[in-house]
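Tutorial, part two.
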Amino acid sequence: MANKDINELVKQLQNGNIEVFDDIYYQTKNIVYYSIFIILKDYQLSEDIMQDTYLKALDKIHTYKPRAHFKSWIVTIAKNLAINEFNRRKREMLIDISEQEYILGSCASTAENEVLISQIFTVLSDIEKEVVLLHVVGDLKHREIAKLLNKPLGTITWTYNKAIKKLKEKI
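Running the prediction step on this input gives:
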C-alpha cells in the first residue's frame, strides 16, 4: 500500500470516494488508538471508542477544513469521545476492590507493542505520554502538538525531551 498524501485522500473522501477510507484509517489508526488509550486505560474500550471515532469522522468529514492537520482533527474527535466515555463511566461505576483489575483493563491486547507501551505508561506522566505518543506514533510535529494540546511550543519540546530522557534511563 503506497503511503499517499493524507490531505489528498481526505479531499477524495469529502468528494464521496469511500474507497480511500482504508488508506486514511491505516495512516491514522495508531495515533487515534493511543490518544484514546491514554484517557481510558482499557484496551477493549479504547477499540470501541476508536470505531466510534471513525464513524463520527465519516459523518462529519464535510466539516473538515484543510487549514488544520487531519490527524489533529481526528485525534480531537477521539479525545472528546474518550473523555465523554470516561466521565460517563466515572458517574455510573462504583469501584469494588475485587473488580478493580477488570475495570482498569487487565484484558490482553492484540497490539504488538503492548509491552513497550505499558512500560511507557508506568514511567511517564500523563502529559509526557500524550506528547510522546502524538509525536512518535502520530507523527505530529511539536508545533502541531502544541496547538492540539493548547500549550506553548517550548513546553511541548521540553516535555518531549524530558520524557525521552526518562525512557532512556528507565527502559
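The chain has a mean pLDDT of 80. In part three we will examine how such features are distributed along the chain.
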